[in-house]
């Protein structure tokens, strides 16, 4: 995976370092992954974007993959989307990019949303893949959401309950979590799954990713409530899987139009894992929106 990409570890301050893969020339694009994956989820899309004329940076979020997993605190601030977004802006600045486009799948999309609010001068355009806004999803919780997204409520339980349960058999949990939204036998390349398992099997990663969700249910909602009337000003592309829970449950464009000034987007013929289920269509949509050569 990622042939021709450099493998970087970038110090972003506060004792945190972020792992990133970098390649290409042209307009800079940052790619962020979701749970329980790593930057490897972009292994089919990233080369296509390089070929389309972009400089591509695919990074692990803090707490995931080979990025740092700092200690948390009672308010979970270390894993707030504000902290995660600041990490990635620092990565791009270290690579020489003060302004860039960014796409985030799943948890990465939530980081992207916060990044566009906190760093409007850095984010030229943003894409969110298969999510509705966090506050919207919590506010509209119903049986379908609680069943399909049970992990939102499981992972926020006080430590060490989810950590111990997941840690008893990380591979079983990972396979079941990925399979719950998988829409095809070839969705996950064997080398990509091996990377997810290598990283997720680390007890520090299990603990950090639980903190990501605890932050989402606490401090992230506080940050959202403090800016409830503020909308993202940069153009926003929303992509979602027509067979996924998000597409079935929400009017995706309408929810994002409540959060951003300029919203466009469409469904792809996939489930949840757009970059792996439909890499060509995902790359084409991102390249068109981000404006490659």
Please explain how this structure is put together:
By secondary structure, this protein is α/β, with parallel strands linked by helices. The protein has one domain (6-290): Rossmann fold. Helices cover 44% and strands 18% of the residues. The protein is built from 15 helices and 8 strands. The chain has helices at 46-51, 81-94, 107-118, 134-139, 143-148, 150-154, 161-167, 170-181, 190-200, 203-216, 219-226, 245-249, 252-257, 274-277, 279-290; strands at 6-13, 16-23, 27-32, 54-59, 100-105, 123-129, 236-241, 263-268. The two termini are 24 Å apart. 50% of the residues are buried. The mean pLDDT is 96.
Short synopsis of the structure:
The chain is of the alpha/beta class and 293 residues long. It has helices spanning 46-51, 81-94, 107-118, 134-139, 143-148, 150-154, 161-167, 170-181, 190-200, 203-216, 219-226, 245-249, 252-257, 274-277, 279-290, and strands at 6-13, 16-23, 27-32, 54-59, 100-105, 123-129, 236-241, 263-268.
Give the strand order, joined by hyphens, for the main sheet: 1-2-4-3-5-6-7-8
Beta-strand percentage?
Answer: 15-25%
Specify the CATH architecture: 3-Layer(aba) Sandwich
Low-confidence stretches: none
* Number of separate helices: 15
Per CATH, the superfamily is Alpha/Beta hydrolase fold, catalytic domain
Remind me, CATH topology?
A: Rossmann fold
The share of residues in helices is: 40-55%
Q: How big is the Rg?
A: 17 Å
What profile does the largest beta sheet have?
Answer: 8 strands, mixed
User: How many β-strands, per DSSP?
Assistant: 8
Counted up, domains total 1
**Secondary-structure element series:** EEEHEHEHEHHHHHHHHEHHEHH
Structural class: alpha/beta
Give the oligomer, counting copies of the same chain as homo and different chains as hetero: single chain
Distance between the termini: 24 Å
Report the average pLDDT across residues. Answer: 96
